């Protein structure tokens, strides 16, 4: 699935007018704006201590690592070489390469989409370098006592590392004070601006010369920076860089001094940061509108809302919820939302801060994030790279994906069809996993489109790392010692049920059943339930009771069933089914 072009942005601060003619009304072409690749920072960081080097020795350590990797495998490194160089277990090295493969901008055939091959050493160095990145912390609240009054500081699930449950943690840093998408991008750009000279020195080749002229970058190496940076139109870096842009396509471009590349990148980052600051200032001084691409996500949600009070087949539309190449579903409560392929802009979706709802994402995407949700069922149809679920309570996630990462969640059930082991990190409690349990007419097509293999399902083989995430100071303060995270248990087969997705729009497709094979123990439980239900129906029909007693029995069964619907959280899905 190819990346869709990102949105055009405002001119860089230093951009010159292009094509400005003497005639009135001559067009001025906007300069491309340099942006961070969010995928690398959002899905490419692993809480493995030996991947995170102290900032003071980071460059020196990675320079030595470069020599060891080159000695072990030349220009490429597999899991065995990486494990030896980093002194980590082979399975952690394989996880690192698999994660790298999942966040590369373009698939590397030698590495493979699952990371089982050998990675380019330059990509490995960039991947290891950004493991030193620290996520942006929430802005301080101006009235902390007021927040404490609204959101208690204690939790029914008190753990030894955190006084707050995941939802309380998110709510205590309410959306107004959580970093926005723009804030996070600016933080990532500032990080790259600070470290770019060291990053370039790691990638550079030595040649004969004096001073700055002795370290150069080739066009090929320069393009590897696309792992971290991209232009808003999705144009390759070398097509915009003046020192490579006019090269003869039939002849290799001459290497360029590192100092020249550094100056060009830093200037573009500065222009982008200035552009972001100007937009932020303008927003603070004027009313935000739905057409502003940087409106807060709580005010910018495009969804199809299915409500029990709406006539069958009708849909209610909200204002737009897209930011660059990401679609948002945010802030819904006590409702049902559906996203189909036609509703998705870009290749990523984020479900944020939804409560007591059912969210259906029936579309193929590359990346999916679920953050800060509670008492909600979320269906993710086909995710070709990574699903990340973080800071959620009492959610049910039904996901078909290549990979999934679960962090800081409590009392959640994950119905999974995953090609790789579920990664569990952070302060989790009472997690359960189960096999994938649903389908919709286009699911098979969507799985094929993003490359998820329904014949491989590792739902019951979680890969557990530590509780403390060195990239995140939100969940755990600095100085807390690390221990292995709590793993997930397999759902009791007797509690397993199939999930029925309503066909609101009468969509047609070839998928008529769950494409993932159900383990025999779960099949047996399903068959037993089916037989038991038939026996109950037969026994009721054979009861020799008068009509009034039958009505009493029917009323009692109805009341018990209604109580179960509310207790299990399935009442919302029933409303959806009634709307068909």
From TrEMBL:
Q: Say if the entry is tagged with keyword Isomerase.
A: no
Q: Where is the composition biased (Polar residues)?
A: 301-320
Residue segments, region Disordered: 276-320
Which Pfam families does the UniProt entry name for this protein? Answer: TBCC (PF07986)
**Boundaries of each C-CAP/cofactor C-like domain copy?**
311-452
Keywords attached to this Swiss-Prot or TrEMBL record, sorted alphabetically, are: Cytoplasm, Cytoskeleton
One cellular component term (GO) for this entry is:
spindle pole
- Superkingdom of source: Eukaryota
Localization, per the record, is: Cytoplasm, Cytoskeleton, Microtubule organizing center, Centrosome; Cytoplasm, Cytoskeleton, Spindle pole
Name of the protein described by the UniProt record: TBCC domain-containing protein 1
Q: Please report the organism this UniProt entry assigns to the protein.
A: Zizania palustris
């Amino acid at each position: 699935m190819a990346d869709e072009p990102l949105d055009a942005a405002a001119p860089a601060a230093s951009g010159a007018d292009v094509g400005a003619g003497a005639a009135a009304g001559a067009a001025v072409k906007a300069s491309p704006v340099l942006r961070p690749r969010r995928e690398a920072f959002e899905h490419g960081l692993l809480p493995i201590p030996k991947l995170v080097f102290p900032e003071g020795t980071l460059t020196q350590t990675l320079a030595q690592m470069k020599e060891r990797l080159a000695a072990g495998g030349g220009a490429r490194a597999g899991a065995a070489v990486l494990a030896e160089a980093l002194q980590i277990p082979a399975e952690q090295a394989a996880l690192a390469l698999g994660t790298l493969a999942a966040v590369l901008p373009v698939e590397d055939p030698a590495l493979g989409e699952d990371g089982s091959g050998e990675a380019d050493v330059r990509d490995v160095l960039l991947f290891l370098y950004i493991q030193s990145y620290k996520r942006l912390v929430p802005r301080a609240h101006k009235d902390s006592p007021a927040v404490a009054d609204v959101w208690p500081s204690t939790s029914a699930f008190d753990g030894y590392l955190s006084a707050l449950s995941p939802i309380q943690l998110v709510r205590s840093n309410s959306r107004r004070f959580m970093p926005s998408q723009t804030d996070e991008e600016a933080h990532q750009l500032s990080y790259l601006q600070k470290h770019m000279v060291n990053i370039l020195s790691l990638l550079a080749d030595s040649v004969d010369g004096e001073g700055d002229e002795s370290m150069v970058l080739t066009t090929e190496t320069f393009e590897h920076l696309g792992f971290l940076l991209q232009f808003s139109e999705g144009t390759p870096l070398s097509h915009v860089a003046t020192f490579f842009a006019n090269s003869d396509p039939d002849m290799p471009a001459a290497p360029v001094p590192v100092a020249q590349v550094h100056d060009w990148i830093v200037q573009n980052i500065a222009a982008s940061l200035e552009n972001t600051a100007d937009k932020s200032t303008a927003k603070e001084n004027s009313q935000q509108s739905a057409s502003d691409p940087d409106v807060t996500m709580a005010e910018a949600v495009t969804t199809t809302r299915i409500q029990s009070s709406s006539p069958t087949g009708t849909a209610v539309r909200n204002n737009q919820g897209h930011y660059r190449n990401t679609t948002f579903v945010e802030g819904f409560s006590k409702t049902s939302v559906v996203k189909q392929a036609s509703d998705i802009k870009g290749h990523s979706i984020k479900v944020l801060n939804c409560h007591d709802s059912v969210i259906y994402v029936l579309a193929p995407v590359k990346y999916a994030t679920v953050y800060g949700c509670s008492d909600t069922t979320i269906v993710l149809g086909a995710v070709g790279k990574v699903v990340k679920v973080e800071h959620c309570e009492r959610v049910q996630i039904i996901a078909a994906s290549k990979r999934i990462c679960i962090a800081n969640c409590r009392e959640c059930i994950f119905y999974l069809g995953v090609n790789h082991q579920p990664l569990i990190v952070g302060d989790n409690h009472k997690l359960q996993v189960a096999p994938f349990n649903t389908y919709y007419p286009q699911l098979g097509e969507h799985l094929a489109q993003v490359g998820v293999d329904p014949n491989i399902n590792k739902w019951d083989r979680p890969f557990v790392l530590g509780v403390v995430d060195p990239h995140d100071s939100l969940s755990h303060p600095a100085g807390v010692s690390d221990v292995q995270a709590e793993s997930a248990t397999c759902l009791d087969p007797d509690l397993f049920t199939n999930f029925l997705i309503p066909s609101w729009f009468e969509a047609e497709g070839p998928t008529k059943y769950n494409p993932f094979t159900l383990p025999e123990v779960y099949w047996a439980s399903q068959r037993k339930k089916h037989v038991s239900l038939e026996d109950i129906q037969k026994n009721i029909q054979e009861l020799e009771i008068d009509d009034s007693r039958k009505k009493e029995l029917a009323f009692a069964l109805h009341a018990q069933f209604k109580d179960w619907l509310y207790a299990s959280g399935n009442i919302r899905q029933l409303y959806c089914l009634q709307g068909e």
